[in-house]
Structures are given as structure tokens and as C-alpha cells.
Amino acid sequence: MFLEAKIEQQYYQRVHALLKLADRYSDQRLDQVCQHALEMNVSPSYSLIKSLLEKQAKSASFFQNSTSSEQEQAYLRGADYYDNDFSK
User: Fold this and answer.
1) Model-level pTM?
2) Each residue's pLDDT tens digit in the chain (88 positions)?
3) For the chain, how long is the longest CA-to-CA vector?
4) Measuring CA to CA, which residue among 81, 78, 15, 18 is closest to residue 52?
5) Cα 23 from chain centroid (whole Å)
6) DSSP assigned state of 32
């Protein structure tokens, strides 16, 4: 298991590595990803947890960028545009 270590110092290093992920990502997101990793694997590795966090962050930023770009592409025309006679 990820947190099982024969040497106590290794245990603290592993816990510290997980806590450093909480500095980059929110505590709630880290908790969710750890829970998901435990559901996927009985003994998840640090690399699995980190990759899940990165994938989640990429997909979240993708959805944020796609919705903002859709809003930027809106074309609004005022009343003056429709008053013009384009048949000339």
C-alpha cells in the first residue's frame, strides 16, 4: 500500500508528498480523487493519484474554456442595423 513503509521516515515523506498536492489542488478535490483511487485500486500509488488530479484539472479547464469561447462568439446587432435598407 502507498502509505505502508518499513521505515518511518518513508511514511512521512509519502504523506508529505500527498499534502503537497493539496497546495496545488483544493483539499476537496484531493479527497475526491483519493476516494476514487481507492475504489479503483486497493493500494493506489502516488502517481495514480497525481495523474487523476491532472486529468481532472485538464478536463475542468477544457469545459471552462469551451463555455467562455461560446459566449465570446455571440454577435449582437442593435436597432440601427435592422433600420438599414439592404435592398439597394
Assistant:
1) 0.59
2) 555 657 778 888 888 988 898 888 888 899 999 899 999 888 888 899 999 999 988 887 644 554 444 445 556 666 776 676 665 5
3) 86
4) 18
5) 14
6) H
